[in-house]
Amino acid sequence: MRNLDHHTITQAVLDRHANTDNPRFKLIIDSLIRHLHDFVREVELTEAEWFAGIDFLTRCGAITDSKRQEFILLSDVLGLSMLTVAMNNDKPEGCTEATVFGPFHVEGAPHYELGADISNGARGTPCFVQGTVRDPEGRPIPHAKLDVWQSDEDGLYDVQHEGLAQAQARGMLTADEQGRFYFQSILASAYSIPTDGPVGELLRASGRHSWRPAHLHFMIKAPGFETLITHVFRKDDDYLDSDAVFGVRQSLIADWMRKDDGTYEVAFDFVLNAAK
Amino acid sequence: MRNLDHHTITQAVLDRHANTDNPRFKLIIDSLIRHLHDFVREVELTEAEWFAGIDFLTRCGAITDSKRQEFILLSDVLGLSMLTVAMNNDKPEGCTEATVFGPFHVEGAPHYELGADISNGARGTPCFVQGTVRDPEGRPIPHAKLDVWQSDEDGLYDVQHEGLAQAQARGMLTADEQGRFYFQSILASAYSIPTDGPVGELLRASGRHSWRPAHLHFMIKAPGFETLITHVFRKDDDYLDSDAVFGVRQSLIADWMRKDDGTYEVAFDFVLNAAK
């Protein structure tokens, strides 16, 4: 195994994996190697471009911390997140569709009682959110756990506000016996994903905008059901047809209604698929 | 652009790049997207596997700093580095072959006079290194700049020793009027690439060893010539045929001779290609 050229090297790398114990891991790593090698050959990547790629990933790593996830953002803008979600969520008719997880989820958000104001001081027009979690037969799923997160009227999540100590506009809720949930929050706004890092550079180099249509994030769990990671989008948003991360599903768009007092309300029911 | 499925999403992402200014960037990013999407579809990547991939890259980022470069290491073990090097260094007959840059180069290594001991206290059996830098016609290249780096007898580079303040076993030298260079250092040893990070996990999961045959790194620059990034390997090393990063070239193997006093010496001449 000396003097490998840019064709023979691919099989040489794959041959190293002959003793890999885990067949699933072997399938994945071998496929990744073949596709990455094909990419490098196809574009005839120069050494300077290779260095630029290493530098790009290094800077993605440097900007990533417990509150910033540039690798998820990268996967999102390359369409890899939505591709993976779409491929794995071919649910039966009637189940709520899934969409991207995104980079702004935080583990261990505060738990709120139903009806509470999860905005917790986040700036925005008040918005009341309600709905029911059901199974595919229409039966309520009692005590389903909802993890909700959203941006404020400036288009920022709490973790994007420097020095903010408490969670804002994110929280965990438990549906009632009839699968109902309801809480006070703020109106979601269209926002730009963070463009101050390497992914922003990539978007600018690509001539792409960085905007996402307004949405609420939900992750809903209940025993015996597939975890649902999804959004509820706002009807009439300018970016529904050009979401920077390709996540819009027509079935997830809701009418967020403006009330006479200037506040909003939105209702959305979720249908979880049975666990496989 | 709603309701993209795992087939239609690829073209949707490519369509976003319609306004990309730089045709070379467009070629590269579009090819990368196509190949990564094909990979995800081919292996039917699950969401859990996607999260594991994000976590892997995140941990590569977290362990990378000014002295540790896990992304280069990853590229090296996947064969992407050597593939890129091989593809870009199809030099004329007689020119010294290139090999991988590796993760252990440091910018701004100390400059030494010819004949100096660049080990600077690194542990190892003394070894004298000499040679000449020439052009393809055999003419010496006066004042060529050599950047040299190597591991010590424990198989570690200076940057891998916690708390070491000074550069050891690395330095810059300037060839003399006749293109000659010579310096004192230590014997290079076979070593394991770092396995305490994500790349180590990948090697273990793949059933691969992590060893590289003993070598000296050289980066040689001279006006009017292509920069040469290469190694000189030690004959008879156990790992010449299974280098963890696929970098061995038969033409780069030298006989490191043991002298009567137990020290070593090695001579190697470099031939730089004319700049394009």
**CATH fold node name of the largest domain in chain A:** Protocatechuate 3,4-Dioxygenase, subunit A
**Greatest interface and its residue counts?**
A-B, 75 and 75 residues
User: What is the chains' assembly state?
Assistant: homodimer
What is the mean pLDDT of chain A?
Answer: 96
DSSP E strands of chain A, number: 12
Helix % of chain A is: 25-40%
| Beta strand % of chain A | 15-25%
CATH superfamily of the largest domain in chain A: Aromatic compound dioxygenase
Q: Largest sheet of chain A at a glance?
A: 5 strands, mixed
Indicate the radius of gyration of chain A in whole angstroms. Answer: 22 Å
Shape of chain A: globular
> What is the CATH architecture annotation of the largest domain in chain A?
Sandwich
* Overall number of structural domains of chain A: 2
Q: Give the structural class of chain A.
A: alpha/beta
> How many angstroms separate the termini of chain A?
45 Å
Note the total helix count of chain A: 6
Low-confidence stretches of chain A are none
CATH class bucket of the largest domain in chain A = Mainly Beta
Q: What are the secondary-structure elements of chain A, in order, as H or E?
A: HHHHHEEEEEHEEEEEEE
